[in-house]
Amino acid sequence: MNPVHDEFLKVLTDYQGIIHKVNLIYFKTDMDKQDNFQEVVFQLWRSFPSLKNKNKPASWIYSVAINTSISKIRKDCNLTFQEALPDFSMVEQPEINEDANYQQLLAALSRLNEIDKSIMLLYLEEFSYEQIADIVGISPSHVGVKIHRLKTQLQKQFNR
């Protein structure tokens, strides 16, 4: 088998949870999550040869997953569906915590715009401001300001 193919499959196996987390934040239906998972994997495969640091691919995977998700949302906003599609088998997803606070956090995050969702997801994953800035495409100081404002906004939603 091709060594690049094997290396890609190992990275995908080890880090597929990142794609599931991004899907959880951006998409509500299982079908949308499955479609986006496939598209993200395709985009990762296309850009894998250009990945510089194959030992630490998490930032790259987050970047591709977030950008692919945002592109899908924007593309889907322009589509109209005529009829329901049949139910397809699902990609196996990791178990999701059903805790009430966790569900409340997901609901609050779902009300944010795409960039703010990305910033908070990466912040919750303990990425540095510099790493978040690289992935999202804004300055580290702007990341700090946005995180402060978003934390205040989310805290108000939790205290209602």
From TrEMBL:
**GO molecular function term, any single one:** DNA binding
Q: Which domain of life is it from?
A: Bacteria
Where does the RNA polymerase sigma-70 region domain start and stop, copy by copy? 15-75
The record, for CDD domains, names: Sigma70_r4
**Keywords in alphabetical order:** Sigma factor, Transcription, Transcription regulation
All copies of domain RNA polymerase sigma factor 70 region 4 type, residue ranges: 103-154
**One biological process GO term for this chain?**
DNA-templated transcription initiation
Establish whether keyword NADP is in the entry: no
The record's comment on protein family reads: Belongs to the sigma-70 factor family. ECF subfamily.
Q: State the name under which the record lists this protein.
A: RNA polymerase sigma-70 factor (ECF subfamily)
Q: Which organism is it from?
A: Sunxiuqinia elliptica
